[in-house]
TrEMBL record:
CDD domains: M2_ACE (cd06461)
Residue positions binding Zn(2+) 1: 377, 381, 405
Sites where the protein binds chloride: 221
Keywords on record: Carboxypeptidase, Disulfide bond, Glycoprotein, Hydrolase, Metal-binding, Metalloprotease, Protease, Signal, Zinc
Cysteine disulfide links: 144-155, 347-364, 532-544
Binding locations of Zn(2+) 2: 377, 381, 405
Catalytic site positions: 378 (proton acceptor 1), 378 (proton acceptor 2), 507 (proton donor 2), 507 (proton donor 1)
Record's catalysed reaction(s): Release of a C-terminal dipeptide, oligopeptide-|-Xaa-Yaa, when Xaa is not Pro, and Yaa is neither Asp nor Glu. Thus, conversion of angiotensin I to angiotensin II, with increase in vasoconstrictor activity, but no action on angiotensin II
Keyword Transcription found: no
Name of the featured protein: Angiotensin-converting enzyme
Amino acid sequence: MGLWIFTVPFFSLWSVTCYCTDLQNVSMPVFKNYSAIATDFLNNFEAEATKISVGESESAWKYETHLTETNREFSVFSTTFAKAFYLKASENASGIRDMDLSNDMARQIRIIRRNAFPKSPKDTKLIEDLISNMTKIYSSGKVCKQHNTTNTTQCFDLDPDLFSLMGNSRDYDELLWAWKGWRDAVGPPMRLLYQKLVVLLNEGASKHGWGDFGNFQRSEYEMGNDFQSAINKLWNDLRPLYQELHAYVRYKLRKKYPQVPENGSIQAHLLGNMWAQDWSSINDLVKPYHKVPSLYVTPNLIKQQYTPLKMFKLAQSFFVSLGLDPMPHSFWNRSLITKPKNKKVVCHPSAWDFGKGDVRIKMCTVVNQENLITIHHEMGHCEYFLAYKDLPYAYRSGANPGFHEAIGDTIALSVENPKHLKSVGLLYAVGENKEADINFLLEQALLRVANLPFTFLVDQWRWKVFSGSITPSNYNSEWWRLRMRYQGVKAPVPRTEQDFDPGAKFHVSANYPYISYFVSLILQFQFHRALCNTAKHSGPLHACSIYKSKEAGQKFREMLAAGRSRPWPQTLYHLTGERAMTAGAMLEYFAPLQEWLINYRIKKGYPIGWKKRKLQTSSMQTNGARKTLSSSTSLLQNVNTEALANNSQSVNLTSSGNKSSADVTFPEVKNSDDTINLGKPDLKAALAAMGPTLKASEPTRGKSNTLLDPKSAILGSKPMFVPNKIMDQLDLG
């Protein structure tokens, strides 16, 4: 999955003195005309933030497209200094009484006020050092094998080498070698760095009244303490669909791999993806009807001599067909769309907003179907950037982070439609019967339904780390408990507490929140259904493509252009007529497949679900493991973490994928439900006092869901994770 990059402001080296002067200009004169104060403050902030954002963006771009120590240091310096600007602006914004302002001004003030940066410049710089070094470890990681016959060593990068191997190999041991080798290469070197990062992030969040950094992250959704309960409900609504898919795939995989258990968790390296989150690459092993024409377009992309550039042009043509903006001329000159041969880069796909219409994509594109869909995803971010580029600086973001991730994927739901692929020449024949529909829906489920639990659990793990209920002594074992509990996958070999398997995912090493992808999976189907209705589609939801519908495009543009200017339920309502995230549209889309899977399981008699099993891992602890957040100052006893942050480039970043060490049995997971409990405060008790939720299948058009309405979360009861003595900083009621 890609990222979108909305960079914080920066100033070039020659303007340091001027910048520091401007920083002082953001401060407040002492008088009580708050409207005048706010107007002056916002005008000053707008001009300064807009002016200096380009330099910071360029420094980050320069580093990620050329991984050198000089570029890293400059990027860290730029981000650190920019955060000093935001910290000062946040402090000054806190002195303005927003209740005396217009709704628009008050919302901007509250967005600027929201902050969790450490107040110590040294700590801020150390955070950026830690993140940049973990990103470097990840992006430089390789898995190497020795060829004894030729006495040579062959090394594999993650992208595209290991991606290709995990997707195409059907050799159990080769897949295991790649899976374990990648985790051995990148996990252990960043483990201590991550421990220190958690302490620093929590200290910053605590000083701003958030309690811990997880509370700060969840506040982005403007739902108070309702957010956790809302996503738990969404997962519970969709879990039966996932369990049916899991049972079917496990049944099919057993025919290829006898090591797969009949009724247990699936080995994580057998699902066609390094993280077992996207199962579409094993479609050939699980496809229901092999006589139906294939929907896989990679052979045709190659046959028709598609290049990465041609794939980008094809993606642009879909957006333009809706009346949305083409990519600007600068996009084609400044984006990085293929992997350079002469320098190291961060290959993880990302979309970048440099302001004033300068948007770019960074991606090491390979000509295949998966990358074609990723291009649409990233270009969706760029369309969002272009749509809200003229809004005030505080509003140049998605309505919530999940909105941003959902834009391109909403388009992809139409792009992947077989009839659309035929219309653009990427498929030559399309079946038009129930068997063809089931094949198509299963392929979609392997991509999207399979991804639900992983996108849900990554931040469940991370929030527990921030809250202190997961400590460094059980980072890895708790990671695999969650993987087993939600995904029904298991590590294929024993893991130890010297490993750091969460760090094998880019978003953990880069400290990028992941729950937005879960939210995106929900929203993209709600968006798709609403746009299909606007396009006057008739028939099953999965058969809809909005290609060339200017009416749907105009409706979409209106939502994009709103940016973050209003609470997201209002933005959602303007497009869909719904005020809450619900699973109904996704369940409607996959309803024919779910019915088929149930009938197929009954016919074949295979089990559903996975038994709880004992976790095989090691009890070995890392130095200085702590039990509570209160002892954070002694977290890394005997470890010079500042030195680690600045010298991680000397760590060996390769792995030969050797077998792991001894293991010990851990107790079984006792909780049978799939609701994450973050510890105190008691979320369940709070939810019981807040009223019922709407069922996923119940239409919400024209209704206000009390549980998911930010106004009720803020005004009806004080959110548990919002700082004491203040209202939610983003909601306007």
